[in-house]
Amino acid sequence: MDQQRPLLYLTLVFLGFMIWTAWEQDHAPKPVSAPTTTVTNASSSNPAVNAIDVPEASAGSSTSTVPTNTSNTASATNGSIIHVKTDTLHFEINTRGGDIEQTALPTYPVSIDEQDTPVIILDRAKQYSAQSGLGHKKVGGQKGSDFAPNHYANYSASSAEYTLKDGEDTLVVPLTWTNGNGITVTKRYIFKRGKFDVAVEHEVDNASSAIWSGFEYRQLRHGPAEEMTGGIFGGVRAYIGPAFYDYDDGKYKYEKFKFGDFDEKLSKKIEGGWAAMLEHYFISAWIPPQTQNNTFYNKYVPHDTTPNYILGLKTPLVDLAPGAKHTFKSTFYVGPVIQEDLKQLAEGLDLTVDYGIFSFVSKPIFWLLKVMHGIFGNWGWAIIFVTVTIKIIFFYPSAMSYKSMAKMKKLSPKMKEMQARHKNDPQAKQKAMMEFYRKEKINPLGGCLPMLIQIPVFMGLYWVLQESVELRQAPWLGWYKDLSIMDPFLVLPLIMGASMWFQQKLNPPQMDPMQQKIFQWLPVVFTVMFLFFPAGLVLYWVVNNILSIAQQWYINKKIVGDG
Length: 563
Fold this sequence. Notes:
Blueprint: H1 5-26, E1 81-85, E2 90-94, E3 100-111, E4 114-120, E5 129-136, E6 161-163, E7 170-178, E8 183-192, E9 197-206, E10 212-222, E11 241-248, E12 251-256, E13 267-271, E14 275-278, E15 282-287, E16 293-301, E17 308-314, E18 318-320, E19 325-336, H2 339-345, H3 359-376, H4 379-393, H5 395-410, H6 412-421, H7 426-440, H8 448-467, H9 491-506, H10 513-530, H11 535-559
């Protein structure tokens, strides 16, 4: 029996994972930067696709209201852009429908080298926008758009520029619509200092002589896109695309609703919940009042060149008596996927920080990283002390493993002699080896344990570095300005390779000549692969290797007495 073969298999599987990961990273989408030009007029939606994207009052209906060319709808008319700036958000809102057509995050630069260029989430170029409006219950020959402003209605605004000033904590951006027959709607965006969530209100003032019966809808619209998921081990990048919080089989759960599934009709009545579009590190989401019942829906708007995907939710009908007012309230979030903030906004929204199948490892690692970061104030030192903590937790099983390996190294001359004696009789050799292991109390698989422990921790930390926005562009020291990207001077990967080579010298030699050659080249192969991995991940591996070398050397020297 070859005691090193299981370890070799594990190493090759792990190496395959790293090769795949390196390829995936090389083909990952780059962050989108804000355009340098200023847009003063919004481009209208494609007239060929805007006829079927307004929901009706009836939740289960497959038809849609078609906007008509009245004074209250603008199916092919451009609106003007309202620019809104706070300390955390830069919005571009179109007076046509009051849609949010572009958002930039000034506190999240595109890269270390482009600190003055903010990431944008909602993007006019991608036809990615946040729409909201009101629908009306049609009676007889009435047009719903005559009584409620959908996202094609023309709003008026008192200013084209709004800025959150120093000393102010709240900024209100009001837009007004009226049908000239007693119905006035004020649409408000309410921004808060330091926040990425925006309160959105539709206040309906019914000064007419009839009951107003309508509902509010909110939807996220995205142009041609491909969600990203897949790869080995459940994917090496988390899901990117539409998602919502579903209630099914008596419990709530996080649901991914892929772009490719939009030919299926979604019509679910759910209390609370949310609808979102996920990107790497960032998210946009409509969040209704969590005690409100909403109907979740989707629409696929086909077109030869620019198909659109819509995921939304709408409220039940509200009957508003003459002379009364009613305010529909929602929350729109656009920003980083910060778990604590998202969890406070709505149940399950923090699940959009998707660590894949390794969540059971990634979540406690991230929690421990946050604790260490709170102590040291630096993510690099947090990674180092998390590595030390993990090593302490697994000190005893690792010690047992290293003790077994040290014994095997000490007794390797006898093992070679035994193999030579039975080289022509494999069955006798295996029987003799097993008896030798039993007599010397050696576990031939003991050397696999450190690798078995290290692989899930490595993968869990990989997900944390890839998906936790807190570690995006996180510095450590010196030239390490971003631990989520590769080491620019390749110092850590080279140290990692050297430590791996030195660690091999402490292990018992492989009996099989072919395996000896493979293991001799593994430090070189791993070093080449680690050149392209996030510096924070390589930092973990280097520290883990150094601690393992110290532990194994101590056991070899003090416990087994192998000089």
